[in-house]
Specification:
Layout: H1 3-9, H2 15-26, H3 28-32, H4 36-42, H5 47-56, H6 62-82, H7 95-116, H8 119-131, E1 134-138, H9 142-156, E2 161-162, H10 167-176, E3 181-186, H11 193-204, E4 209-214, E5 226-230, H12 243-262, H13 264-273
Parallel strand pairs: 1-2, 1-3, 3-4, 4-5
Helix pairs in contact: 2-5, 7-12, 8-12, 9-12, 10-11
């Protein structure tokens, strides 16, 4: 994950640690060229504080921090130059404000999927999909609708899958699921009680699982085999999930596209069979016909 994006979202820092992080984010190009003593002096902190920050970022030391800053700087500057920071929708916003904010927030959420998840993580999940005899999608509320969309994709590929609507159905499946199934669990907060129970059932049964959840510390992370992340920014002033819905759909599109690409020859017959031409009208065909 991009180290600068990780800094923007890290929580529970001490005031002096936050001072270091803010200094780096304000001018990452300058910070990448500094030594630890210079950085401590310019940020009005100490070398010890900087070392604590590197540990919070799960880095080996200051040299690793400088290396990551140099490696991730161009990507970070590119995305921040193209799109303004995510902003919550406020009751006082004009229509123009809302259009701009929702558009910008959704675009940023899609881009963050790429930044939060490494190619190795995507590759691992695609391999798990290929090894599974069945894909089971779990989620409640809006996440459940996304599960049904994913199950439809699996159906078109001829892959056995489930996306049950009710908790009782999901819980029974989780408790009886064999180890050759793959559970894909969607929960933006990672704290929904029913989904945590389902994840615990799956873990107890040794069923491999993948979470799709917000990039925050949450209870779901400890219960799943692999974790994929979407943006953790959602406005309180909203109707259901907005950018989180879009980024979850985008993440699943990546997984299915990569899976199709890897298994194109074997999947093409199923894709051809499940294309229903009668559901499409020829260009120019009228409703009366």
């Amino acid at each position: 994950m991009n180290i600068l994006l990780k800094m923007k979202r890290i929580k529970d820092l001490s005031p002096s640690e936050r001072q270091v992080v803010n200094f780096i984010l304000d001018d990452p190009a300058r910070a990448a060229g500094m030594g630890i003593t210079d950085l401590a002096r310019e940020s009005f902190t100490s070398t010890g504080t900087i070392m604590r920050v590197t540990r919070r970022l799960e880095l080996d030391g200051f040299s690793s921090l400088r290396h990551q800053l140099a490696a991730d700087l161009n990507e970070y500057l590119e995305t921040t130059a193209l799109f303004r920071p995510q902003e919550p929708i406020e009751p006082s916003d004009t229509l123009s404000d809302i259009v701009d904010k929702v558009t910008s927030n959704n675009v940023r959420a899609v881009l963050d999927v790429r930044s939060f998840n490494s190619l190795d993580m995507f590759r691992q999940v695609v391999e798990m999909m290929g090894a599974a005899k069945q894909l089971d999608f779990y989620g409640s509320g809006l996440s459940n609708l996304i599960c049904h969309d994913a199950a439809m994709k699996a159906l078109r590929l001829g892959l056995p899958s489930t996306a049950y609507t009710y908790y009782s159905e999901q819980a029974m499946l989780a408790r009886t699921s064999p180890k050759d199934h793959l559970a894909i669990i969607l929960s933006y907060t990672g704290q929904t009680d029913e989904i945590l129970r389902v994840a615990q059932y799956l873990k107890s049964g040794g069923v491999p699982s993948v979470s799709i959840t917000s990039h925050t510390d949450n209870a779901l992370l400890e219960l799943c085999s692999v974790n994929l992340f979407v943006d953790s920014f959602e406005s309180v002033y909203r109707i259901g999930g907005m950018s989180s819905r879009l980024s979850s759909l985008h993440l699943l599109d990546i997984l299915f596209s990569a899976y199709i690409n890897k298994n194109y020859d074997s999947l093409k017959p199923s894709v051809d069979k499940t294309f229903l031409p009668e559901t499409f009208r020829r260009l120019g065909e009228s409703l009366e016909q």
